[in-house]
Amino acid sequence: MTYVIGLTGGIGSGKTAVSDHFQALGICVVDADVAARVVVAKGRPALAAIAEHFGADMLLADGNLDRAKLRAAVFKDPAERRWLEALTHPLIRTEIAAGLENASSPYALLVSPLLVESGQNQLTRRILVVDVPEELQLARTVARDHNSATQVKAIMAAQASRQQRLQYADDVIVNDGSLAEMQAKVEALHSKYLELANAEVK
Ligand code: ATP
Fold first, then answer.
1. CATH assignment, 3-197
2. Is residue 19 within 6 Å of ligand 1 at its C-beta?
3. Residue located nearest, by CA, to atom 31 of ligand 1
C-alpha cells in the first residue's frame, strides 16, 4: 500500500505550487480534478448515464460533456447535484486509488480541493492543508484568473473556512511568504514524510 498524503486548501491557496515542488522532489502526484474529468470523458459509462438523465443536449457537438451546462444544472438544483455526486464520486475515488496504487515514489500525494468533503481522505494517511490569509488568497487568485474580487469572494464563501480545514489538518503549510519560503517548508515536510513512509515499510 502506497503511503498517501492528502493535500488540500481553498481556491488559490497554493495547492498546485506546493504539489509542483513535491513533484520536483520526485514524488508522484495524483490530482483529483484530473480524475474527475477522466470519469466523464467521452466513451465512459458515466457520460452516457449523464446524457440519459439530463438529456443529450448536455453533450457538445463533438460528444464531449458540456461542463458549463452541467455545472449550471446542478448549481440551481441540489437534488440533481446529489444525483451527479452519487454517480461520479465512487468512480472518481476508484480512478484516484488506481493512480495512487501505481505510484513509484516512497510516498504519494493526492491533491484535492474537496479532500474531506468528498470522502477522498479515506485514501490518505495524513492531511496537509495549505493555509493562507484571506486577503492574500483573494489577491493571488484575482491576479491569476483575472476574475473580479466579487467573483472570487463568492467562491471563497462557498468553500470550507480556514478554521474548518485547520481542524482536520495533520500538517499545515502557511503559504504567506515567497515561493522560496514555501518550497523550504515543502522540503522539511518531504523529509518527515520519507521517514514516516519508511517506518511503515519496516
Ligand atoms: P486552485 O484551487 O484555484 O486550483 P491552487 O490552490 O492550486 O488554486 P495555485 O494556483 O498554486 O493555487 O496558487 C495561486 C496563485 O498564487 C498562482 O498564481 C501561484 O503562482 C501563486 N502563488 C502560490 N504560492 C505563492 C507564493 N508563496 N508566493 C507568490 N505567489 C504564490
1. 3.40.50.300
2. no
3. 179
